[in-house]
Specification:
The complex is a heteropentamer, with one copy of chain A (about 290 residues), one copy of chain B (about 260 residues), one copy of chain C (about 260 residues) and two copies of chain D (about 260 residues). With about 290 residues, chain A is of the alpha/beta class. Chain A contains 14 helices and ten strands. A five-stranded mixed sheet of chain A has the order 2-1-3-10-4, with helices on both faces. In chain A, helix 1 packs across helix 10 and helix 1 crosses helix 11. The longest helix of chain A is centred in the C-terminal third of the chain and has 20 residues. The two termini of chain A are about 30 Å apart. Chain C folds into two domains: about 40 residues, no CATH class; about 210 residues, MetI-like fold (Orthogonal Bundle). The N terminus of chain D is likely disordered. Chain D has two domains: about 180 residues, P-loop containing nucleotide triphosphate hydrolases (Rossmann fold); about 70 residues, no CATH class. A six-stranded mixed sheet of chain D has the order 6-7-8-3-9-10, with helices on both faces. The chains are: A alpha/beta (about 290), B mainly alpha (about 260), C mainly alpha (about 260), D alpha/beta (about 260). Bound molecules: adenosine-5'-triphosphate (ATP) (2 copies) and magnesium ion (MG) (2 copies). The site of one adenosine-5'-triphosphate has 13 residues of chain D, from strand 2 and helix 2.
């Protein structure tokens, strides 16, 4: 019999393996019917998970750790997106062409646009400033939605922006330049986002979760083998609504099948350093075994 | 004095909306020109591009589907919220106890913006239709409630005494005297609510879900397709405008007997 | 029925009573685990947190910011709406000129206007104030137009027969007669303004109650978040009460107000 | 005519008192009213402004309760509007339903009665509209009629209920002077034809004398019945001729002197 | 008295016509009105409902423009409300400013005049309030007064402007019959004392005869002046005695016969 699993997602390139697994019928093969429901980020997705309205949520790592710390009882079951060993990333710090900014030191007294404060983009913007010799507290962080970031920099309302694709490429194609790639420059193979489920659901349905992760991993394999294929571009275009040519230009990078527990440690460190986390926290406690299997 | 009592005949010759529509067109031309020459931003596409996007969206049926899905939800929320507003409004206006019991609750709930209570909403109603329909009804509820209370209270006691002197029962008095007499107020409240219903359905779709105008606007923005985003906004404006006209027309027909100027 | 004191006392306590019993019910539901206490904390816990926030003096900074934005945007929105409303209500050509624009902009969700607003006004207070003022503008405008239209022609003729100038007519006759409706619009506008200020702070926040609420929500600090939602509700309630009192004094002569 | 004046009491008000408010904000409107309305007569009640005439009439109609005393209608105590008594309001503008056509306004008087179909209610309403000369306006809305025509609709509506007693509270005060004269003639004719009991509250001495068999004069607040005049003018009365009869002029002089209140 | 009736023309309406609307929706309200109002006289204008009396008076006041013909006030053409002419509206309820106190409502008539301070405006207003017997109510708001009192406020306000011509459009039709009688006496006294010219539009034959020196009778729409009656009753007139004078009864019979419209 078929088990229904609702997944809260964000319609961005990062969920390509999930969409491929759906399209290719990998979930059906495991007896699972996946139904995705887009939300505006973890703020709506994670409460929905806690309320039992969805069974799996796609979220960035910082939100997952915060939710776990606040007792929402959730665990990572599979990786979603991880940065590479070296730049470029899907997220970059951009400024106007010809601007003098190179390092964090240059941004002291300046303004950097982030999508939301107290979250992953903000966290790594600060980490990058520190890592490149600046004082993160001497920088002003402005909240600007991603689509408006380039306008904000262009209109001198911010000096730089930590933006994501496709806005990075769009900006660079016009009058922006990349200053840095904070994710990778701070931490190689940064586990930026994961899929999580609630502890109680995992306990009651261990088989479903295992099947889900297996199917998802098949999707990862397929994507990694077909990174440049037209079929992949069409699948991504179908849910992001970006034209396939644009996606091709942005490029799809390989996906991981497991989360490296050690990679979570620096994230937790950064959070603690920047006041997002207090007290004891063991990153392993939020990793379900399915996330560890290679 | 002339301008005070009558307007100049040259103006009267043209339908008076002409100049307004002209102004609208001029503003769009200004938009087009600035988009082409001065404002270098992908978020400010030329009007011609937007109109093209409108045309494409309409031809391939996508916009129709997007709008249909929002309209359906909006209509449900509007109907539920208005009905609740009318019923509770009548109760509060006619029963002092109901008024005393509910007023503090109503006044405390009113200022809470919907995005502030997303988590409990999700907990109680999920993230699908139920939640969105509820938020729309919640928003529609207050204007209708307030107006219904005002309308029922404004029913002339003479009208009620007429019913009493002819031995008309309470329920019948409610349906054939109180309700029609407060209809002008109720409809005015519903007109405010209709605009709110549209706004709130779109905002709710922006927060969660994979359907409707709000989701479409968000997705197009994140897909760097601002022309398509503005296409939806243009249609949204047209939709709001025509919904208001439609309700006005209904009001005109139902309330032909109601003349404002009279005390 | 005869207005006996016990009956009236019962009525006075009924509202708070209903409120308290609802809260009690919620308390039981959360304590007993019927309702996920992580998402909806018990009211007593929230009340405690409200108390802490207030006594620790953490209330005033965000409250002040929110109130400042509210006051500025509200004032701008009302003044513009009243001026334009009087012109549109009084002069047909002005009405014809602006009405289509107004009717096209009115039903647009303000969040949908955010991209162009941010593009042209930036991210600071100007943008937020504009967005909020826009929300206040429409209800006040519509009511002002209706109020000005509803001025009894007899009153206008009275001013004319006593040789008053046009300016005096506007100032002494049109504005006061339209006042009950203008104030009603301003009361609706006040409610909208608070909601919009909070939403604006949520969307491009640098402070204020809205930013706090969304930030606490994003980091799942649910108790704190509810503490601020409660503060917000009380603020809205208080603002409305104050406005109603002012309104009652300002138009004590108008018997028409209810609700 | 005189047979009527001596017929038995139809509606009896005994010891009626009414006090509004309580404590220091108390208003005593009616002091101690004794009044017998005889079957089939036309009784006018006149009195200074604000003396409590409307209050008295509403109590008689069962629309308001007295603080003291009782109202009896054919021996039964009146505590709420009893069948058989209909109240005609002064403000026709407020007592007609603007959303109903003229015909449906009249039908309102009977349509809810058991065994009454909508069609039958309308049929009988048409008869009464005809009586007040408005058959041609059945489909109009009240706002489309002049004030005098609207008041005629309320008269038709009251008659449609086939009342045994018709209580009228200044029914002619809001129409213009000429229309008022026409309505006086109309009401006199209908009353003569249908034989109901009529009680008319008015400020207008001419109106009272022209229409009534007996005139009850009330004192200023708190009201008491201070005089009861028998008009004794021949019927049918005529708008041009009757006011020239010496008895009319005498009555008018007497009534006005009392009302314009050079003392009691 | 008779000196007044024969004094030279103060306000002259010649060839006045007024047509509302255009095309098929045209209403001809006034056909061809010739009317001379003499300095200091009391002129009444009566006519059937809707014949155009208000329209005529508004044209005379400069509040409306005629389609044809001219209005002259002391020889000068009237195109907008001229100083010296004041219009008194029928609906006192609508013509008082509910947000002003009674005193400030009266002050509205003069407060804007050059050289008039607020204090002086109020002082003089108090005098006029006193004349209509409302000095004690200066601080009240209109809603707190009875209808008759409100109409007295509008009379005080009109007088405060010290008009040479006072145009009154059914000023007594919305107050109750007794109050109306009191206001008749009040207006008669004020007019005798101040010597302004008075034009009164009314439906009420008794009112016209009691107050006026001359009565202009208008035809049904489109209105023309079909008769001009001189009352010639001695002044001061008394509410109780005057209506018993045979001349009064004759005038009343004649006027009512004309108005109740058994032909022209
Ligand atoms: N509901 C009420 N509460 C308090 N006082 C009232 C109420 N109704 C009437 N009164 C007072 O009782 C008195 C009599 O009122 P009522 O309307 O019966 O007089 P009336 O003779 O009909 O007056 P009018 O001549 O103006 O029609 C008035 O002084 C009035 O102020
Ligand atoms: N602004 C207007 N537009 C069109 N027709 C009008 C207008 N004003 C008045 N009329 C018409 O002109 C005619 C005369 O109106 P007016 O008010 O002068 O009559 P009246 O004699 O004062 O009536 P009443 O006795 O009811 O006071 C009426 O038939 C009326 O319908
Ligand atoms: Mg009364
Ligand atoms: Mg008139």
């Amino acid at each position: 019999q078929v088990t229904k699993v609702r997944v809260s997602t964000i319609p961005i390139i990062d969920i390509a393996p999930l969409q491929v697994a759906i399209a290719k019928g990998y979930f059906t093969a495991e007896g699972i019917e996946v139904d995705t429901t887009p939300t505006q980020g973890g703020a709506a997705g994670i409460p929905a998970l806690a309320a039992g309205q969805v069974q799996v949520v796609f979220s960035n790592v910082v939100s997952i750790i915060q939710a776990a710390k606040q007792g929402l009882g959730l665990q990572i079951i599979a990786p979603a997106s991880t940065t590479g060993d070296a730049p470029p990333d899907q997220a970059a710090l951009i400024a106007k062409k010809g601007s003098p900014f190179k390092t964090g030191k240059d941004f002291e007294g300046k303004r950097i646009a982030v999508n939301t404060r107290n979250n992953i983009i903000w966290l790594y913007a600060r980490a990058w400033v520190r890592a490149t010799g600046g004082n993160p507290d001497a920088v002003t962080y402005l909240e600007v939605p991603f689509p408006q970031m380039v306008d904000a920099v262009r209109g001198d309302r911010a000096d730089a922006a930590f933006a994501v694709e496709p806005f990075v490429s769009g900006g660079v194609a016009a009058d922006m330049q990349v200053v840095g790639y904070p994710y990778t420059q701070v931490q190689k193979r940064l586990p930026a986002a994961q899929y999580a489920a609630s502890k109680s659901y995992i306990e009651q349905n261990p088989k479903v979760i295992e099947g889900w992760v297996r199917a998802y991993q098949k999707g990862v394999d397929w994507v990694n083998l077909n990174l440049k294929s037209e079929e992949l571009l069409n699948i991504i275009s179908g849910y992001t609504r970006m034209p396939p040519q644009l996606i091709a230009k942005l490029g799809v990078t390989a996906y991981e099948k497991a989360v490296d527990p050690a990679a979570l440690v620096p994230v937790v460190d950064q959070m603690r350093r920047n006041g997002l986390l207090e007290g004891e926290f063991d990153p392993k406690s939020i990793l379900h075994r399915t996330a560890l299997k290679a | 004095m002339a301008a005070w009592c009558t307007r100049p005949d040259s103006m009267r010759a043209l339908p008076h909306r002409f100049w307004g529509v002209l102004l609208l067109v001029l503003l769009l031309v200004l938009w087009q020109v600035t988009a082409l020459c001065c404002v270098a931003s992908t978020n400010w596409p030329p009007v011609t591009e937007i109109l093209k996007a409108v045309a494409t969206g309409l031809v391939n049926g996508e916009l129709a589907q997007v709008f249909g899905s929002t309209l359906w939800r909006m209509a449900a929320g509007f109907a539920i919220g208005s009905a609740a507003g009318v019923l509770l409004g009548i109760a509060m206006a006619t029963l002092p106890l109901a008024d005393a019991a509910l007023r503090p609750l109503v006044e405390l709930l009113r200022p809470i913006p919907m995005p502030a209570i997303v988590p409990p909403l999700i907990l109680l109603l999920g993230i699908d239709h139920a939640m969105k329909v509820f938020t729309v009804s919640f928003a529609c509820f207050f204007p209708v409630l307030v107006n219904t209370v005002a309308g029922v209270r404004a029913v002339d006691p003479t009208a009620l005494d007429v019913a009493r002197t002819f031995q008309v029962g309470r329920l019948r008095t409610l349906t054939s005297v109180v309700l029609p007499a407060s209809l002008p107020f109720i409809l005015a409240g519903m007109r405010t609510s209709l605009a709110l219903a549209l706004i709130v359905s779109v905002v709710a779709e922006m927060i969660a879900g994979s359907q409707g105008i709000g989701y479409y606007i968000m997705t197009m923005q994140y897909a760097m397709r601002p022309s398509d985003m503005y296409a939806a906004i243009f249609l949204l404006a047209a939709l709001g405008y025509s919904l208001n006209l439609a309700l006005l027309a209904i009001e005109h027909r139902v309330l032909h007997w109601w003349r404002r100027g009279e005390d | 029925m005869s207005g006996a004191p016990p009956a009236r006392r019962l009525q006075a306590w009924l509202g708070p009573g209903v409120l308290l019993s609802l809260l009690l019910l919620l308390e039981l539901a959360t304590r007993s685990g019927w309702v996920n206490a992580v998402l909806v904390p018990p009211p007593t816990v929230v009340a405690q947190r409200v108390f802490t926030v207030v006594t620790a003096g953490k209330l005033f900074e965000p409250l002040g910011r929110t109130m400042y934005l509210l006051a500025v945007a509200y004032a701008i929105g009302c003044v513009l709406a009243i001026v334009l409303g009087v012109l549109m209500g009084r002069f047909r050509p002005v009405h014809g000129l602006l009405e289509p624009l107004v009717e096209v902009l009115r039903p647009l969700p303000k969040p949908a206007l955010l991209p162009p607003l941010m593009l042209f006004l930036g991210l600071g207070d100007t943008m937020k104030i504009t967005a909020v003022a826009l929300g206040v503008f429409f209800p006040v405008l519509i009511n002002t137009i209706q109020g000005v239209r509803g001025v009894d022609p007899v009153l206008v003729d009275v001013a004319r027969t006593f040789q008053h100038s046009r300016a005096a007519l506007l100032w002494k006759v049109v504005l006061p007669s339209a006042m009950p409706l203008v104030l009603a619009g301003m009361r609706i506008g006040l409610g909208i303004a608070l909601v919009l200020v909070v939403i604006a702070e949520m969307m491009a926040g640098t402070g204020g109650i809205g930013y706090l609420i969304i930030d606490l929500q994003r980091s799942f600090r649910v108790v704190d978040m509810y503490a601020w939602v409660v503060i917000l509700a009380v603020l809205g309630y208080a603002l409305n009460e104050v406005f109603v009192r002012i309104e009652r004094r300002a138009i004590h002569w108008s018997g028409a107000r209810a609700g | 005519m005189n047979a009527r004046v001596n017929s038995p009491a139809d509606l009896t008000l005994s010891g009626i008192g009414k006090t509004f408010g309580s404590g220091s904000a108390q208003t005593e409107a009616l002091a101690e009213i004794e009044l017998e309305v005889r079957e089939g007569e036309f009784l006018a009640v006149v009195g200074p402004s604000g003396c409590g005439k409307s209050t008295l009439l509403q109590i008689a109609a069962g629309l308001a309760r007295p603080t003291r005393g009782t109202v009896r209608f054919h021996g039964e105590e009146v505590t709420q509007p009893p069948p058989g008594i209909v109240y005609l309001f002064q403000q026709y503008g407020k007592s007609l339903f603007p959303w109903r056509t003229v015909l449906d306004n009249v039908a309102f008087a009977v349509e809810h009665r058991p065994g009454m179909s909508r069609a039958r209610a309308r049929d009988s309403s048409r008869t009464y509209l005809d009586m007040v000369g408005l058959a041609a306006f059945a489909g109009h809305f009240p706002a489309q009629l002049s004030g005098g025509m609207q008041q005629r609709v309320t008269i038709a509506r009251a008659l449609a209920a086939q009342p045994r007693v018709l209580l009228m509270d200044e029914p002619f005060s809001s129409v213009d002077a000429l229309t008022r004269l026409e309505l006086h003639a109309l009401v006199q004719n209908l009353w003569q034809k249908h034989g109901f009991t009529a009680v008319l509250v008015t400020h207008d001495a001419d109106e009272a004398i022209f229409l009534a068999d007996r005139i009850a004069v009330l004192s200023a607040r708190p009201a008491r019945v201070v005089r009861m005049l028998e008009t004794g003018l021949p019927r049918p009365r005529d708008r041009l001729e009757t006011p020239q009869i010496p008895r009319y002029l005498d009555l008018r002089h007497e009534l006005l002197a009392m009302l314009l209140g050079h003392g009691a």
